[in-house]
Amino acid sequence: xxxxxxxxxxxxxxxxxxxxxxxxxxxxxxxxxxxxxxxxxxxxxxxxxxxxxxxxxxxxxxxxxxxxxxxxxxxxxxxxxxxxxxxxxxxxxxxxxxxxxxxxxxxxxxxxxxxxxxxxxxxxxxxxxxxxxxxxxxxxxxxxxxxxxxxxxxxxxxxxxxxxxxxxxxxxxxxxxxxxxxxxxxxxxxxxxxxxxxxxxxxxxxxxxxxxxxxxxxxxxxxxxxxxxxxxxxxxxxxxxxxxxxxxxxxxxxxxxxxxxxxxxxxxxxxxxxxxxxxxxxxxxxxxxxxxxxxxxxxxxxxxxxxxxxxxxxxxxxxxxxxxxxxxxxxxxxx
Length: 335
Fold this sequence. Notes:
This is ArsR family transcriptional regulator. Among the domains are: 3-108, Orthogonal Bundle (Arc Repressor Mutant, subunit A); 262-334, no CATH class. Helices cover 28% and strands 25% of the residues. It is built from ten helices and 13 strands. The longest helix is centred in the middle third of the chain and has 20 residues, at 179-198. It starts with 13 loop residues before the first helix and ends with a helix. Residues 1-9 and 47-54 have low confidence and may be disordered.
């Protein structure tokens, strides 16, 4: 089924998709159609009924001239190879399909081909564990945030402690932003993705997500570093995986649980605006307590404290919250 009830073409196997795009002329056709597309044109405004009901197509002659290919017959052959999968043919001409837009966006975002580096620089945010300055650096399309003093949350690939997070972000995320703005944009970009994973929807391809728990049975976090067995400070980690596009996410359960609606409501009732995509989430995660109640199957209790009150959430092995209990302090009960 396709959007707007339109029956698009049959599925293109990944190997065939790579073969179709593995040609300079075809790639140039996709790029040119993207450049000719004007999102501010009223005809291109997304409509709930049919995304493609506007006359946004480019005629064959206009596209041929814009690409600048010499042989019209050969050009038509390459265009036909893209049609139905990356390019759509209409009565008015040609336009990109959603798959074609995704290819073009990857190039524009700098994911394909562009390499940027950001040398280590302090940002005006404290470490959620010790309050020391946070240092960020960017390389290989990833932004890493580390504590300048304490062991952080993880060890990096070389075994060094201090890592707070390592998140993927396209080079375009650094454009026209200060280091602090890059830091916060990376958080919002990735924590929104993580929230989608937690909701069971892959943020890259919208397929169903497999969720699992990774529990360190012999957890021994060291004062000066991570656990020698799991190389992290937290004993329980959530793993998310999409088997369709192989997108993955991993992180502490104490961060993932903060996306739950009951947590947001718990904070709200105490006058606190809880924004899951903000840096404050990492600080709040340090105050949570986890307790492994059962191992076969897993049953875990997470306790969230606030102003003397406690919210206790019990999760099963599928990460579903099966019990919610609020424990009020005597002061709150009196009020």
